[in-house]
């Protein structure tokens, strides 16, 4: 038995991933930030289906909370062999003229620093160098890292560009230590992340510009993440999987 940590697992892509990883036999550490009820619902869902899961609260942008989260995972007594860096934030649409330093810093703190901190703590536990059993990490980036988000969320797009570079560099650094590091780049996925930003009709406008003419479901991203973490992807590291309807 082994633990998979999924950050931001109380809803959206993280929730779908947690549910599928439990079906694969992982004990799932369900990270949440504020909403313990939603996290508990995910855990109950997993347990009712015969799986194993527990909740770990942490704001991933806060180092002390990340350290406490990994300590509580250690206390479960099973090795951590999978990390899904999924928790992320996206603010409302804004041109660069209106981007405040506070907003830029918050986006980078969660979408970049948070990913770094969780990678660092996971590597300490997975690496052969530290007597770990090896493992796999999947970073959830975005198609925005390739396409930009002009006039909309250039801060968010840039933060995901950093996630891409983290993936490439870390995959090389830890390949010989038994850890694979890969990345998924979702496009438009129907989750609550779109509730806070965007002009009315934005989601429909983006959707109609997609070759597949539809957005994706969180479960479609989750199944790619599960595959990248699995032994079926045993020779895959430093790779990027586009989940963006052909864009
Ligand atoms: P979501 O808003 O439904 O879920 C994000 C989760 O992250 C939430 O549970 C939230 O509480 C959590 N979170 C945010 N800040 C946190 C923090 N500081 N500490 C801990 N948890 C925190 O959104 P989603 O669409 O499921 O997004 C998941 C990931 O997918 C994000 O990284 C997002 O950037 C990425 N993504 C989403 C889309 C999309 O269209 N939905 C497209 C590309 C990439």
Task: Report what the structure shows.
With 247 residues, this protein is an alpha/beta fold. The chain has a single domain (3-243), classed as Rossmann fold. The chain is 43% helix and 16% strand. It contains 8 helices and 7 strands, in the order E-H-E-H-E-H-E-H-E-H-H-E-H-H-E. The longest helix has 26 residues, at 101-126. 45% of the residues are buried. The mean pLDDT is 97. Bound molecules: nicotinamide-adenine-dinucleotide. The site of nicotinamide-adenine-dinucleotide has 27 residues, from helix 1 and helix 4. Nicotinamide-adenine-dinucleotide (NAD) is lined by residues 7-8, 10-14, 31, 33, 59-61, 86-90, 110, 114, 140, 142, 186, 188-189, 191-193. This is NAD(P)-dependent oxidoreductase. It comes from Lelliottia aquatilis. InterPro entries: NAD(P)-bd_dom_sf (IPR036291), Sc_DH/Rdtase_CS (IPR020904), SDR_fam (IPR002347). Keywords: Oxidoreductase.
Identify the notable features of this structure and list them briefly.
247 residues, alpha/beta, Rossmann fold, binds nicotinamide-adenine-dinucleotide
Level-1 CATH class name? Alpha Beta
Question: Could you tell me the mean pLDDT?
Answer: 97
Structural class from helices and strands? alpha/beta
Strand-residue proportion: 15-25%
Instruction: Give the names of the bound compounds.
Output: nicotinamide-adenine-dinucleotide
Strand order of the largest sheet: 3-2-1-4-5-6-7
Please state the oligomeric state of the protein chains shown.
Answer: single chain
How many domains?
Answer: 1
């Amino acid at each position: 038995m082994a633990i998979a940590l999924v950050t931001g697992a109380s809803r959206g892509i993280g929730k779908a991933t947690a549910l599928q990883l439990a079906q694969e036999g992982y004990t799932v550490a369900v990270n949440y930030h504020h909403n313990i009820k939603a996290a508990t619902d995910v855990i109950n869902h997993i347990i009712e289906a015969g799986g194993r899961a527990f909740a770990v609260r942490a704001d991933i942008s806060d180092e002390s909370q990340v350290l406490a989260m990994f300590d509580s995972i250690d206390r479960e007594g099973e090795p951590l062999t999978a990390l899904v860096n999924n928790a992320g934030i996206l603010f409302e649409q804004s041109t660069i003229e209106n981007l405040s330093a506070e907003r830029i810093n918050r986006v980078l703190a969660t979408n970049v620093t948070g990913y770094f901190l969780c990678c660092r703590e996971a590597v300490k536990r997975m690496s052969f160098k530290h007597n770990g059993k090896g493992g796999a990490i999947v970073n959830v980036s975005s198609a925005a890292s390739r396409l930009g988000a002009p006039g909309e969320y250039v801060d968010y797009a840039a933060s995901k560009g950093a996630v891409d570079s983290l993936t490439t560099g870390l995959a090389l650094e830890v390949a010989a230590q038994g850890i694979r590091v890969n990345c998924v780049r979702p496009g438009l996925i129907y989750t609550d992340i779109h509730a806070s930003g965007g002009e009315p009709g934005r989601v429909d406008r983006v959707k109609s510009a997609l070759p597949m003419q539809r957005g994706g479901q969180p479960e479609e991203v989750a199944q790619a993440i599960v595959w990248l973490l699995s032994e079926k992807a045993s020779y895959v590291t430093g790779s990027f999987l586009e989940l963006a309807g052909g864009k």
